[in-house]
Amino acid sequence: MEYVDPIKDIKSINKIKEILRQQSQRDLLLFVLGINTGIRVSDLLSLKISDVWDGKEIKEFIYLNDLNSDENKAFYLNNSVKKELKKYFTQHDFSECDYLFKSKKNNQPITRQQAYRIINNAAKEAGIPGKIGTHTLRKTFGYHAYRKGIAISIIMTIYNHHSSAETLRYLGIERGGKQLIKVDVNL
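Predicted structure:
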């Protein structure tokens, strides 16, 4: 697998969102869900409507079985994700067993290659330098979680890493480098 970068600049993230918003609500949701949860792209693509919708409202958490640790992990759906899910649900008629990121060609989810094209093309159009791929979503989540004051130990657990040094390296953060952390309690 080729090394990819997180998107560190919020303006660039917003630019990609705008590009994807004009392209497709499904594609925008893929991006927003990925950068706000840190879920692997293979797990994102296997999500069904029932994983995010309880029949009445959007769930608070997505529960996924982690194959590496064989434990059930919970991923919080924040307001940004819920907003895009609501828009997505109003634009399409879904059943519980439909894939969340359903292909326009059949009842299967979009492929990893299609997800890569969606993310990579939007990043290029937004003028983002560096290597961008589907894994960029996961790295962007971790980078911004760390910058907003989430403990590296928590991010490390989400990624199933064995050390904080491994997680910092994965996120492209220099150890010992002066990095301002936003501890945004915002009560």
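Summary: The first helix runs from residue 10 to 23.
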